[in-house]
Amino acid sequence: TATGSTAYSMAAGGPVMLPDANSFIITPICPHNLVQRPIVLNNLRKVSFMALNGDCMISADSQVNISVEKGEKIEMKLYEKKLQLIQFDKSAFINVMREKFFLGRDPRLC
User: Fold this and answer.
1) Alpha helices (H) along the chain
2) Per residue, what are the HEC states of 34-53?
3) How far is 48 from 31, CA to CA, in rounded Å?
4) 17-29: pLDDT as tens digits
5) Which of 19, 27, 31, 80 is most buried (CB neighbours < 10 A)?
6) CB 57 within 8 Å of CB 49
7) Torsion over CA of 60, 37, 82 and 44, rounded to 10 degrees?
8) Cβ(13)–Cβ(35) under 8 Å?
9) What is the pLDDT of residue 59?
10) Is the CB of residue 24 less than 8 Å from the CB of residue 47?
11) 28, 38 in Cβ contact below 8 A?
12) Looking at residue 4, what is its pLDDT?
């Protein structure tokens, strides 16, 4: 979800995603190259990955780990079923972000 991935993505240098954004964030973790940057895609797209080397692994929320062979193609898409979650006031997300991450103010002056 946009809300669930925002903190992790931010920690890895990715963007903040508002809860009502219908998008995927792909954030490289510890990239070796400065041109490997986060990307935001519409969630109606299918995203394909291919393992270029051996010893690759896909991890889903650190719950499921799947080994991927060299040359194997992986496709990611939006799951058809929707999950009912508690929905907070839209302004609550921005207020929490503002408080926790000192948005709009210098944390040294607080």
Assistant:
1) 2-11, 90-101
2) CCCCCEEEECCCCEEEECCC
3) 19
4) 887 788 888 888 8
5) 27
6) no
7) -130
8) no
9) 77
10) yes
11) yes
12) 62
What number of other Cβ atoms are within 10 A of residue 31's Cβ?
13
- Tell me how far apart the alpha carbons of residues 74 and 79 are, in angstroms, rounded to a whole number: 15
Residue found by looking up tokens 């607080």 in the block: 110
- Let me know: does 1 contact 11? Beta carbons within 8 Å: no
Q: How far is Cα 41 from Cα 33, in angstroms, rounded to an integer?
A: 21
Q: Is the pTM of this model over 0.70?
A: no
Amino acid at 106: D
User: Are residues 38 and 26 in contact, defined by beta-carbon separation less than 8 angstroms?
Assistant: yes
- Closest listed residue to residue 57, CA positions, set 36, 74, 35: 74
> Residues 37-89: pLDDT tens digits?
888 888 888 889 888 887 788 877 677 888 889 999 989 888 888 777 676 66
Structure tokens given for 107: 């944390």
